[in-house]
Design a protein that fits this description.
Elements lengths: L2 H13 L4 E3 L8 H13 L7 E6 L14 H15 L4 E6 L8 H13 L3 E6 L4 H10 L1
Parallel strand pairs: 1-2, 2-3, 3-4
Helix pairs in contact: 1-2, 2-3, 3-4
Length: 140
């Protein structure tokens, strides 16, 4: 869906009272974030009038640090998402999947630093086993 086609749909949703918008860096390789950011900026008078969520995990390029949930990827990923979204923060930053290669302690500390820096208000996770959610929460 391109921006021109998406605008009337998102406009109708906003007019109907929808204020939560969720995307991910990997949706259309970042284009979804770009379109979402531009449309929300057009449709809402203030940034505080909607809740914006995005996700991280899947590779955005072919390099060894371009995917997963390493500290490096999380910190560079939030900056890239914010650039594409055209905002200084997201309300919810979610890990898209469990990363079996990165210790959960590293993941949670990096996410904590994203929140402390003001780049995200809250953190979350979108898809994993219940024990993985519990382990992440325990580490937090």
């Amino acid at each position: 869906l391109d921006e021109e086609a998406a605008e009337p749909i998102v406009r109708r949703a906003a007019e109907a009272g929808v204020t939560f918008f969720d995307t991910a860096d990997m949706y259309s390789h970042g284009v979804s974030e770009e379109i979402t950011g531009r449309l929300l900026d057009k449709l809402f008078p203030r940034r505080d009038d909607y809740v914006l969520a995005t996700k991280i995990y899947f590779p955005m390029a072919s390099g060894p640090n371009d995917g997963g949930l390493s500290r490096k990827h999380i910190l560079s990923g939030i900056d890239a998402s914010l650039r594409r979204l055209g905002t200084d923060h997201v309300d919810l930053y979610q890990i898209h999947r469990w990363d079996y290669e990165t210790p959960i302690e590293e993941v949670m500390e990096a996410l904590h630093d994203v929140v402390r820096s003001g780049k995200a208000r809250y953190i979350g996770a979108s898809s994993m086993f219940a024990w993985q959610f519990a382990k992440a929460q325990h580490v937090a």
